[in-house]
Write a structure and sequence with these properties.
The chain is 30% helix and 26% strand. It has 151 residues and is an alpha+beta fold. It has one domain (6-133): Aminopeptidase (3-Layer(aba) Sandwich). A five-stranded mixed sheet has the order 1-2-3-4-5, with helices on both faces. The longest helix is centred in the middle third of the chain and has 15 residues, at 93-107. The protein is globular, with a radius of gyration of 16 Å.
């Protein structure tokens, strides 16, 4: 895919109506107001949401949070979401968004970037996509994702 007609930019609260359908497509429904609140919170925390935009249309996005790891005194970026809209999948846009996220993480002094990807995404090839780009969960540092819902 030629990306000269797609550019990557920071999201703002006014982008909520454009992000909301993409979240629903990933099975994370939210109202426009909720998306606005999330974008505002991310901005306040110094986190990042990057949009892939074609004309006036948001065709994908990636959301990053940042933290300091206590046990290793290392900065880490976590990919909270990566969504590519229908009609743009399989054309390199996800790879481009990940590359930009990695650049942002490195610029912030992060030594690690990680993500979680639900088991329900495995059949669509999402896990293989991440593995091809160097994201793995193997060897000594392999992790199990355990979760407990508090409310």
């Amino acid at each position: 895919m030629c990306f000269q007609d797609i550019f990557i930019r920071d999201a703002s609260e006014k982008d909520a109506p454009k992000l909301q359908p993409l979240l629903e497509a990933l099975e994370y429904p939210a109202s426009i107001q909720q998306v606005e609140e999330r974008l505002k919170t991310y901005e306040e925390l110094g986190y990042k949401v990057l949009l892939a935009v074609k004309g006036e249309t948001v065709v994908g996005f990636i959301a990053l949070s940042f933290s300091e790891l206590f046990v290793s005194q290392t900065k880490k970026a976590h990919i909270e979401a990566l969504i590519v809209g229908e009609g743009f999948k399989g054309r390199g846009l996800g790879r481009l968004l990940l590359k930009k996220a990695e650049e942002v993480a490195q610029a912030r002094g992060c030594h690690i970037i990680d993500l979680t990807s639900g088991k329900r995404r495995k059949s669509s090839g999402t896990h293989e996509f991440y593995k091809k780009l160097g994201y793995n969960n193997e060897g000594y540092w392999a992790k199990d994702y355990l979760r407990k819902k508090l409310r």
